[in-house]
Design goal:
- It is a single chain.
- With about 160 residues, this protein is mainly alpha-helical.
- The chain has helices spanning about 1-35, 40-65, 70-100, 125-130, 135-150, and strands at about 100-105, 150-155.
- A two-stranded parallel ribbon has the order 1-2.
- Helix 3 packs across helix 5.
- The radius of gyration is 26 Å and the shape is elongated.
- The relative contact order is 0.12.
Length: about 160
């Protein structure tokens, strides 16, 4: 899970500069297209069309090389499936070896309130890892496997 959170952070950090460059080029392109709508001399129109074509090529290159999401999405889905598989195997192994009658677990369905940046005591790396934590998936798998094996689950308040 840590490796996946770090991979996503590295990927998005590197993508931000390309996304911003493409955004600026699109803005310049729309300004030039508006300028081209006004009547100009033939030479000025040729220069504007030439510049518009150049900008369109640069934008398309940026999008095809740096903003693609198919590989990104495929890698993310693969990591998520792998993490769920490991979770499932670990829970099943624990339940079969321990053979509990009742499984008591903390109710982690609460949402954390937003704090101002100065009051936030976690650094960015820790916040990123906590936000990618799959507590919902873990809770669902525990309940499903306990139900399949006939084990009763009880949720308790995490404060106690």
């Amino acid at each position: 899970m840590n490796a996946e959170a770090e991979r996503i952070n590295r990927r998005n950090t590197n993508r931000n500069e390309y996304i911003q460059a493409a955004k600026e080029l699109r803005h310049e392109l729309s300004a030039l297209q508006a300028k081209l709508a006004i009547k100009h001399s033939a030479k000025t129109e040729w220069r504007l069309r030439n510049r518009i074509g150049s900008l369109e090529r640069r934008i398309s290159r940026l999008e095809e090389r740096h903003l693609g999401s198919k590989l990104y999405h495929r890698q993310h889905v693969r990591k998520q499936c792998n993490m769920e598989r490991i979770m499932n195997m670990s829970i099943r192994k624990m339940l079969l070896t321990e053979k509990p009658d009742v499984l008591v677990k903390e109710d982690l369905s609460f949402t954390k309130e937003k704090l101002p940046k100065a009051a936030n005591r976690y650094e960015a790396k820790v916040r990123r890892k906590l936000s990618s934590w799959t507590k919902g998936t873990l809770d669902d798998r525990i309940e499903y496997l306990c139900d399949c094996l006939g084990i009763r689950t009880v949720d308790v308040n995490p404060a106690y």
